[in-house]
Design brief:
It is built from three helices and no strands. About 90% of the residues lie in helices and about 0% in strands. Helix 2 crosses helix 3 (about 60-89). The protein is an all-alpha fold. The relative contact order is 0.05. The chain has one domain (about 5-89). The chain has helices at about 5-25, 30-55, 60-89.
Length: about 90
């Protein structure tokens, strides 16, 4: 295998740094979605475990889904109200 010269190593490091920045810039929506879903899953895990111990096995998933649904509906209604009031001003 060929050994890389100092300039080639520098070029590879610079290229990987630029590619990392480009991927992070264009993938920020997906990355934000993955991070937020992981955060919500870790927050709802204790609730789901407790409900699983007290009731049926599928009830934890039902409670988690209902909490997420209420959260999404609440956030969308708040943002809609905020945008409507901004538009009127």
């Amino acid at each position: 295998m060929q050994r890389l010269s100092g300039l080639q190593k520098y070029a590879y490091v610079l290229l990987s740094l630029v590619l990392t920045v480009v991927v992070l810039f264009y993938g920020r929506g997906l990355i934000l979605l993955i991070i937020s879903s992981g955060l919500l899953a870790s927050l709802l895990l204790p609730v789901a475990r407790r409900v699983d111990r007290l009731a049926l096995k599928w009830s934890g998933a039902l409670v988690g889904t209902l909490v997420m649904l209420v959260t999404v509906i609440g956030l969308s209604s708040c943002s809609t109200t905020h945008f409507v009031t901004l538009r009127e001003d």
